[in-house]
Amino acid sequence: MTWAQKVLADKSGRSRVEAGEFVVARPDAFMMHDIFAADVLGLLEETGIGSLDDAERVSVVFDHMVPAPSEHAARHQQKARILARKYGIEHVYDVGRGICHQVMVEEGRVHQGDLVVATDSHTTTYGAVGAASAGIGSTEMAYALATGTLWFKVPESVEVWLEGHLAPGVAGKDLILALMTLIGSDVAQNRSLEFHGPGSRALELADRMTICNMGVEMGAKFAVFPPPSASDRMGPYAARYTVDLATLEPMVALPHHVENVAPVREHAGIAINQVFIGSCTNGRLKDLREAASVLRGKSIAAGVRLIVTPASREVYLDALREGIVEDLIEAGAIVEGPGCGPCFGGHLGLLAPGERCLGTHNRNFQGRMGSLQAEIYLGSPMTAAATALTGVLTDPRVRTEAEREVAR
Amino acid sequence: MSPSGMTFSGKTWLLGDNISTDLLSPGHYVHDPMTVRLAHVLEAVRPEFAGGVQPGDVVVAGKNFGCGSSRESAPQHLKDLGVAAVVAESFARIFSRNAIAIGLPVLTCPFVAGRARDGEAITVSLDQGEVMLADGTRLQAERLPEAMLDVLARGGIVPMLREIGRR
Fold first, then answer.
1. What is the CATH number of domain B7-166?
2. Which of A35, A392, B95, B139 has its CA 20 to 30 A from that of B75?
3. Per the CB < 8 Å rule, is B157 touching A139?
4. pTM of structure
5. Does A405 fall in a domain?
6. Do B94 and A22 touch (CB under 8 A)?
7. What angle do CA A122, B35, A62 make, to 5 degrees?
8. Is the CB of residue A146 less than 8 Å away from at least one CB of chain B?
9. Chain B environment of A49 (Cβ under 8 Å)
């Protein structure tokens, strides 16, 4: 079986399941964030459901509209807190704790082999620890919390076999962006993306989280790194790809779709007004450390705004203790509190008509960050930092070479 | 819905590939009043849509319809504006689950965006898994599984929750 089949079989009480069949499974963990928690729990209240099937499995994280930018958001969050208490949910991570997917991993709320559903499309992130995890909407979440179960179509799986190591200046973000064109939604839609091979073992958790996080951008149901011990015996796969990590280079997604990907060097020089480093995709310590390594001792270009949001309180504290936050602020960055920041267009850095943002987040859809006439580019934290220094889209390896010149 | 509850006829609103949840329900307006949110549905690609769509109209699109967020407001806004069904060459997974959960029929139909014409009549048969265009052309679609048709026939998951709540 594939990893997706194995997890869905385990959680539906079956010895095996076949791709294409529908199963009713019992997820191990459920997560809601502040945009939808009040809606989900409010729907349960309205439909007369007095208790959850198992509140212990449920987490609520306040990360999207934090701290509340409007009275409406504040009321919405107040309602979520009241209802979470009413329904006996104890695992509530309030404003300031961090972005839901980062917090779920830091708090050990998701594990290898778990089946997880959450009211956020980037729930695929937990594949980095070996969980089969997928986003669902609020009405389905209400049903899942009431019954403890949900239907799943057993997906076909796509194998991505990784070899080698990432080159300097290249990160997990560049791999997943490269896969947007190599695989794409025509192949990955509704399937489970499963990463195996020696290269997958060479990737840090932070990079694995970035890769699984963006699996959903090509429509994947799950994106998962199964444990190495399982690699040899898994399959069959609907499609197989092999990637040598050493051959990758910095990539960028161009407006207005995530599959519109090209090497950064082919589009270097495009003027950028705002650089955003953060989000559930790339706001971890490794990301901030890599950005600081590019920015340390320098100043961002005139006319560029650099916004940084650590993915969690832990990440923020670690970055403070390492001196990373100081490096970023001295270079000209605005460091916001932990949260989703401007990624989804809620607040903290929206765009005017004609402006361009290069961000480390996950979507560049038209209108996502404010104006419909703004443009969003997506790249790695190193690409973002190099771009902030120059004010134009910049391959971070080019800077490294220029620095070597200076050093000589 | 028709007497059988499974066939719809309406005017076609033809859209392209990769219609995202940000186009359907921009995150920027997530906390605005519903009238404001509905006014911005699809404004980037069809500015006349929100004001012009009539109850019973059918949205027809290319590949990867509803890609992006898990926000249920994406299908809900289409339903609130009166859209009877969405027919696309393929759907993003969460969008199609959400649509069925709230009682908005979705039907996957290969090649439909290249064959349907904007503004013309279209008939969608869920139980046949078929689409009929104004010129009489019939296109084979992927019939939804029985369990999903059952959820749609009940009007979505909310009535099912009410049943659980009464127990």
1. 3.20.19.10
2. B139
3. yes
4. 0.95
5. no
6. no
7. 30
8. yes
9. 161, 164-165
